TrEMBL record:
Pfam families: Glyoxalase_6. The lineage of its organism: Bacteria, Bacillati, Actinomycetota, Actinomycetes, Micrococcales. Residues 4-114 form the VOC domain. This is VOC family protein. It comes from the Bacteria. InterPro entries: Glyas_Bleomycin-R_OHBP_Dase, Glyoxalase_6, VOC_core. It comes from Cryobacterium mannosilyticum.
Length: 115
């Protein structure tokens, strides 16, 4: 039996705001939307997708799971994302080759160096 990644689910306080932030950050499109949930994907029917679900509980502490993104130009992408509202985060990474950022609700993600 093999597993295939279908979607990444992100709990958030304001799914509309956070999903739209990630839509701009990734260039993905909204493929499904209803009260309290918005799904983004590169294209309809394409996986994996990102599902943003509104929850009442606030985020507490460091993520136990995070996304790693690989851009063509790490420095330019970090500057773009920070300009969109991401923040730099120090989780003890030291002088690593990746940059740790957090989205507007504090969810950490990494921007890796181009391969």
């Amino acid at each position: 039996m093999a597993l295939r990644l279908e979607e990444i689910v992100v709990d958030c306080g304001d799914c509309s705001s956070l999903a739209r932030w990630w839509q701009v950050a990734t260039g993905w499109q909204i493929v499904d939307e209803d009260s309290g949930a918005i799904e983004l994907a590169l294209a309809p029917g394409q996986t994996p997708s990102m599902m943003f679900i509104e929850v009442a509980e606030p985020k507490r502490g460091k993520n136990r799971l995070h996304l790693d993104w690989v851009p063509d130009d790490q420095q330019a992408e970090v500057e773009r994302l920070v300009g969109l509202g991401a923040s730099r985060v120090d989780i003890g990474q030291g002088s690593a080759s990746w940059v740790v950022l957090a989205d507007p609700e504090g969810n950490e993600f990494c921007v890796l160096a181009a391969r």
